[in-house]
Amino acid sequence: MPKSAYAPEVRLHGDQVTLPIHMVREYPFVEGEVDGVKGKFMLDTGTGEGLIINDHRVTLEGGTVLGKGFFGSGQTYEKRLRPSVKDIRLGEMTFPEVTQVQSQDTQLQEEHITPDFLGFIGYWFWDGYALKLDYKQSRATFYRGGPDDYLRGEQVVAALPFELRKLPNNPVMHIKVGSTDFAAVFDTGQYGLMFVDQDTLNRLKKEGLITPDKNNGEKVTVTGIRFDNGLTATIPAMDVSTKPFVAAKPIGLTEKNILTLGYGFLSQYKTVWDFKRKTIYLLRP
Q: Which of 232, 236, 254 lies closest to 245, judged by CA?
């Protein structure tokens, strides 16, 4: 899979790097700054580019239109390429000038997540590193080494092999909900969502696997989730959609039933995302 040509200067360096994260609801953020404008970047495994800047919040000069993109919720946006952006900070990492930077209008995220939304940090920022995400300790740690480094002192609950389809940043696994087959896609940039047709939804409800959430009547609790290694899971406060998953084709999903696994599942563990070895480790928090 080709490397990204955008924001080539925004890459990790060193054998181990830790960034503090700040949670806004289900979303992990890293504090940052662009040309004097302070705010937060979402740490989003669902984003391929190493850096995307919110040009609704930050005034950027020049640039050309790259095309259209879309959010998982279905809204579209225009992608733009900026030849140069100065004075970028991610946590304590500083970049005096970054060339070939992608930007887009993320006013939607400003309104619905946090008003100081600066953009996204994605996969090509940490390419070559394993990512350990610890919601409880509010930190993301990146390891150039392997399991001997990132599993030292940890209690492993499960090692979950995954596959990659069309994109290098979207881990895909086979799971079941009860006896129904699903493709599961892991993504830190969301809570989690189930996509099924109406007949499947009705059947899962009848089987007692989808029930009204006890704390939020507008959402559901999904039980009976089972991975191929036998691990089981329950996820509260989920949404279910009978519309198609708009990111299915770009990711390479052809399955009828899809479950995206975000904060609702990930927050139950510390997780390590080792893209080189195509394994997600679940660790005791």
A: 254
- 54 by Cβ neighbours in 10 Å (0-12 / 13-18 / 19+) ranks as buried
Q: What is the pLDDT of residues 32-90, one digit of tens each?
A: 999 999 999 999 999 999 999 999 999 998 899 998 876 655 667 789 999 999 999 99
Q: Which two tokens stand for residue 106?
A: 């993320």
Which domains are seen in the chain, by residue range?
16-127 (2.40.70.10), 154-283 (2.40.70.10)
Among residues 202, 206, 197, which one has the least CA distance to residue 242? 197
Beta-bridge partner residues of 99: 84
Q: Residue 169's closest CA among 67, 254, 69, 49?
A: 49
| Helix (H) / strand (E) containing 150 | helix 147-150
27 vs 276: CA distance, rounded Å: 24
- 3-state secondary structure at position 127: coil
Q: How far apart are CA 50 and CA 145, in angstroms?
A: 20
Q: What is the pLDDT of residues 116-147, one digit of tens each?
A: 999 999 999 999 999 999 999 999 999 999 99
